[in-house]
Write a structure and sequence with these properties.
single chain; 219 residues; alpha/beta; nine-stranded mixed sheet; two-stranded antiparallel ribbon; 11 strands; 26% helix
Length: 219
């Protein structure tokens, strides 16, 4: 007996060739291999298509410019509440729509500042969540992607963290979430503050986490 394929919706700003297109294109073949029909939209108005969102198992968002309307935001939240998964990374999800508090609560956090000045740093997986399907079998790793300090909901499920050293303002080191999940009604949200580079080669740790997050969050 045949089974209906799952539906994934990629929502990204810009045109083919820009960073949002290039990074989301990294994951399109992966989604197809795992049985998804993939629809790509470059406008936020798609979030007001309640029928489409109700039929969508996974929304992959990479939106780094512009504002979301109250209607678009409410429709997206309602879709996730009903079971549609939401996934994104870096500024395309965690720093999108900074004026919309309800959206930030859905995602579970937002970028606040980058006090690190760059440089190579360690991403540590949460030992107490080692059995979570997104991180099971993986290990801590080093990366040179930017570090961001997110303000976050204490109810998120933190899967990985990064640490900022103390400085003249903060006398001690501070550990903050880098990768997390949350449930929202019947839906699941996966968020990563780590950037996925479109010109990367091979299976990076960041990409492995994203691919697992895609599957975990989908209905």
């Amino acid at each position: 007996m045949s089974h209906a394929r799952r539906q994934a919706l990629i929502v990204r700003d810009g045109r083919e060739g820009d960073s949002s297109a290039l990074t989301t294109n990294l994951f399109r073949p992966f989604l197809v291999r795992h049985g998804f029909e993939v629809l790509v939209e470059d406008c936020l108005e798609v979030y007001e298509d309640e029928k489409l969102l109700a039929q969508t198992d996974l929304v992959v968002q990479c939106w780094q410019a512009g504002d979301i309307t109250p209607g678009e935001s409410a429709s997206l939240r309602a879709a996730v509440q009903g079971g549609t998964g939401l996934v994104g990374w870096h500024s395309g999800l965690v720093d999108a729509f900074p004026e919309d508090f309800d959206y930030q609560l859905l995602v579970g956090g937002r970028f606040r500042l980058d006090p690190s000045g760059g440089g190579r740093h360690r991403v540590r997986l949460a030992a107490e969540r080692a059995d979570h399907p997104v991180v099971t079998g993986l290990c801590d790793f080093d990366t040179d992607v930017e570090r961001y300090w997110p303000l976050h909901d204490p109810l998120i499920d933190v899967l990985a963290t990064i640490t900022f050293d103390g400085d003249d303002s903060r006398p001690g080191a501070s550990t903050v979430p880098a990768v997390w999940t949350r449930t929202w009604g019947r839906g699941r949200v996966f968020a990563s503050t780590l950037r996925c580079r479109p010109n990367g080669t091979g299976m990076t740790h960041e990409r492995a986490l994203m691919e697992r997050g895609l599957l975990w969050a989908s209905r």
